[in-house]
Amino acid sequence: MRISRYLPKHREAIFPWIFSAVLIVWISFSIFRTGYNVAKLFTQDSHLFFLNDRQKTREVYGDIESMRQSLALITKGEPFLLVTNDGEIYFFLRYLLYPQKVYWTHNVTREDEYLHPWKYVFYPYMIPGVNEKHAVQIIDRTTDKNLGIIKQK
Predict the structure, then answer these.
(1) Residue range 53-151, CATH number
(2) Contact 96/53 with Cβ under 8 angstroms?
């Protein structure tokens, strides 16, 4: 029993119907998503309307934005190494500091620190007992000086 018995005699006539159905579903989905995002703009994101750009960025990215400001101030565009198991911090910092190179590893040895082009090594960690608060220990690799710890506000 061949399935072609059940298809129209002109098989090429079925392609426009399938194409039209897919196109209609696609357009319907796009209209629904656009309407949803417009509705979300006035319900969930309405508190962002009257904030300036810096406040909006702080509201959206949270503590990572404070960390980005501190790291940008210290590194002044030089590449740095981020030693952490938290990929979220790495990817947000890589996005927010874009032209600047950000390297990421889970652990690093002293030999590794000297073989690569970064000047600063950052060790972010969570502050015990405080949710969503980060601190960063900073080491200047060229002088082996501990530059201190940045605690996010």
Answers:
(1) 3.40.50
(2) no
Burial class from Cβ neighbours inside 10 Å (0-12, 13-18, 19+) for residue 136 reads buried
Q: What is the DSSP letter of 116?
A: S
**Number of alpha carbons in the 13 Å side-chain half-sphere of residue 40:** 6
Which three-class secondary structure state does DSSP give residue 148? strand
Kindly list the distances between the CA atom of residue 143 and the CA atoms of 133, 137, 139, in Å, as whole numbers in the listed order.
Answer: 28, 15, 9
User: Terminus-to-terminus CA distance in the chain, angstroms?
Assistant: 73
pLDDT value at residue 10: 61
pLDDT one-digit tens code per residue, 63-121: 778 778 878 888 888 888 888 877 888 888 888 888 888 888 877 666 666 667 677 77
